[in-house]
């Protein structure tokens, strides 16, 4: 039996806000799945509880049914954010680009105490004064052995030119795929190692996506750029998956070199060659060119899935493609899902039963559909239509996120905030809750019912639970 639920994340006390809360991401505490956090680029404007110059996150302590604001980000407002709980420590880690720092400054990595309480800042772990874009965080807790109880933290990102990304080209469009590694992230004095991933090119695409398994296997996917179109509107890239088998620790001869390509023997397996990626444009308000996701089966670190979007030609349709490997990334084959045209915001997760979950949005007849598909065998897929909404009239971001905890899937996607109940689970099968004040006549109204709120993008939480 499957239960499905969608909740609009904007808290009732902030019903009057109309900021564009794009680029949502989610973290769920595996030790207590009632505890979860959602981040967005925006901070609600009607915020009577603001605590000085701090940005905000959304948090829930009841499994996503109700959401509140926590004022914890150590800078007023924020850009890209990526949160993740470790597996057993109750520690929450967030990488954030403080507002105004994109292309100009730092990435902050912070640690926040969990354990079923409103979140408060616990520790500033790292502040990198470098040109960084699109951080992506994963973490786990070591079980067994000498390092039992230590949190392993991995932050993938793109480091822009002039700060180690490229020595030859100082333009803001040049950057390198990087990963920061902390092998004891919950310690009082966390230490980070900074690893440049690509041995083939100094220019890499924006998404850098790590994933970690409890046995110490760490995969990371990135785009290695091989050429740039004369008008700079397209990059031709090789999609690369790198792997480390020992936590990317000091025990490794060199981090992320366990998987090599048979063509050139360089670190990282080239999964797809000559892939054309647009560097601009949008689909229903979603910025294109940033769609890449990787997931490893928690029951078997040999089994890995990879999804991305590309165009076959400069005039081609933006298309989702999916592959899988059952031998630790050495060989890749079809995962049973046909290419999906006009799709974006792709993200993968795999639950503790080995079931794969795929989140994406798709433009259909002028509307944006949000889909969740699953497979148990990589051959046949089922499809749930979570939402069918009008396309955004402004920026809704270039990523969303889904995570697995236990047998459940938990995710967040951006959509226009029109409160029509028929927009959600339009084919049935699930339930919906709006936290904001609504009249269910297509209008959002202020908390006190004295004005109609203009349309904007909201984050929408969903959970998919299989109940035996």
Characterize this entry briefly:
0% of the residues lie in helices and 49% in strands. It is mostly beta strands.
How would you sum up this structure, described in words?
This protein has a single domain, classed as Neuraminidase, CATH 2.120.10.10. The chain has no helices and 34 strands. The chain has strands spanning 2-8, 25-28, 36-39, 55-60, 68-73, 78-85, 92-98, 107-112, 121-128, 132-141, 151-160, 175-182, 193-196, 204-212, 218-228, 234-244, 269-278, 282-283, 286-287, 292-297, 300-310, 319-325, 333-334, 340-341, 343-350, 356-364, 367-375, 382-389, 401-405, 408-416, 431-434, 444-445, 452-453, 457-466. Strands 29-30-34-1-31 form a five-stranded mixed β-sheet, with no helix packed on it. Strands 20, 21, 22, 23 and 24 form a five-stranded antiparallel β-sheet that branches. The protein has a four-stranded antiparallel β-sheet with strand order 2-3-4-5, with no helix packed on it. A hairpin with a 5-residue loop joins strand 25 (343-350) and strand 26. The radius of gyration is 21 Å and the shape is globular.
């Amino acid at each position: 039996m499957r239960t499905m639920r969608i909740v609009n994340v904007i808290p009732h006390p902030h019903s009057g806000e109309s900021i564009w809360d794009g680029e949502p991401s989610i973290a769920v505490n595996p030790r207590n799945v009632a505890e979860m956090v959602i981040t967005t680029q925006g901070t609600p404007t009607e915020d009577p509880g603001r605590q000085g110059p701090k940005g905000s996150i959304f948090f829930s302590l009841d499994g996503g049914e109700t959401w509140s604001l926590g004022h914890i980000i150590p800078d007023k407002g924020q850009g890209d954010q990526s949160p993740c709980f470790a597996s057993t420590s109750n520690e929450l880690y967030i990488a954030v680009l403080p507002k105004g720092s994109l292309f100009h400054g730092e990435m902050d990595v912070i640690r926040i105490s969990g354990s079923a309480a409103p979140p408060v800042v616990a520790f500033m772990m790292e502040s990198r004064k470098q040109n960084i874009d699109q951080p992506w965080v994963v973490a786990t807790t070591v079980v067994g052995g000498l390092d039992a109880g230590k949190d392993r933290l991995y932050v993938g990102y793109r480091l822009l030119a002039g700060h180690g990304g490229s020595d030859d080209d100082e333009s803001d469009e040049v950057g390198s795929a990087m990963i920061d590694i902390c092998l004891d992230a919950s310690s009082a004095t966390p230490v980070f190692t900074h690893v440049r991933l690509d041995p083939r090119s100094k220019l890499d695409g924006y998404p850098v996506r790590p994933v970690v398994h409890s046995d110490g296997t760490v995969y990371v996917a990135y785009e290695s750029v091989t050429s740039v179109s004369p008008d700079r509107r397209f990059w031709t890239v090789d999609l690369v998956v790198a792997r480390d088998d020992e936590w990317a620790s000091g025990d490794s001869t060199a981090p992320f070199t366990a998987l090599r390509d048979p063509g050139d023997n360089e670190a990282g397996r080239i999964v797809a060659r000559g892939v054309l990626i647009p560097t601009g444009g949008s689909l229903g308000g979603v910025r294109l060119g940033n769609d890449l996701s990787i997931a490893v089966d928690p029951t078997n670190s040999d089994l890995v899935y990879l999804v991305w979007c590309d165009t076959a030609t400069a005039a081609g349709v933006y298309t989702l493609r999916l592959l899988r490997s059952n031998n630790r990334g050495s060989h890749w084959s079809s995962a049973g899902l046909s290419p999906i045209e006009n799709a974006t915001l792709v993200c993968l997760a795999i639950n503790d039963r080995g079931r794969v979950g795929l989140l994406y949005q798709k433009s259909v007849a002028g509307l944006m559909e949000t889909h969740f598909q699953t497979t148990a065998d990589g051959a046949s897929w089922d499809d749930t239509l979570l939402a069918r909404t009008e396309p955004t009239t402004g920026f809704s971001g270039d990523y969303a996120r889904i995570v697995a905890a236990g047998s459940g899937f938990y995710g967040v996607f951006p959509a226009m905030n029109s409160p029509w109940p028929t927009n959600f689970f339009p084919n049935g099968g699930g339930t919906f809750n709006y936290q904001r004040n609504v009249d269910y006549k297509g209008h959002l109204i202020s908390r006190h019912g004295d004005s109609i709120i203009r349309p904007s993008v909201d984050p929408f939480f969903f959970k998919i639970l299989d109940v035996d």
